[in-house]
Specification:
This protein is mostly helical. Helices cover 76% and strands 0% of the residues. The protein has 2 domains: 55 residues, Arc Repressor Mutant, subunit A (Orthogonal Bundle); 127 residues, Tetracycline Repressor, domain 2. It has 9 helices and no strands.
Length: 195
Amino acid sequence: MTSNRRIGTESSDTRRQLLIAAGELMREEGYAEVTSRKLAQRAGLKPQLVHYYFRTMGELFEALFKFSTERYLAQLDRIATGKDPLARLFELNSDPTGATMQLEFLALANHRKEMHELIAEFGQELNNRVAAIVRAEMADHGLPFPQVSPEEIAAILEAVARGLAFSGRFNEDRFASTRKAISTWLETIASSRRT
């Protein structure tokens, strides 16, 4: 049974501070090490405040996932209107920090089934937004991918970028040069505008 006690507001700076600290802790030590005590210590707050803002650790993880994905989608929106969106999109998805968080959330979903639905919903939203960026680039530049849909290109870009990000944790030099080569290739494709 859920408690009816007062919970801190979602717009609170303290709540945001806790979510940022939880993300740092999760990236550095893994989701299993995100406890209310460690989180409070990382955020420089009293442990009771964690449960003031989040009734359970499950609630904290769901809030952290939403917080992280909202920030990620805001980056996608900036990329969509900026220069060389395909290259910037690839760089965003091949960021080892983001890849680490993705792995931790997937591992967490194995133990907390409520995360499955959140991850599935986000995956669909992500593919739709990335496909929209790809579709716009294909239309603006007349990019020659007639046998592949924007959704398929989006999935390929995400999979390759994430794969590089995961492996980059173990072979940083190779990761960096491959990431740069693919970004340069994507910039070259985009710069060849239709005449």
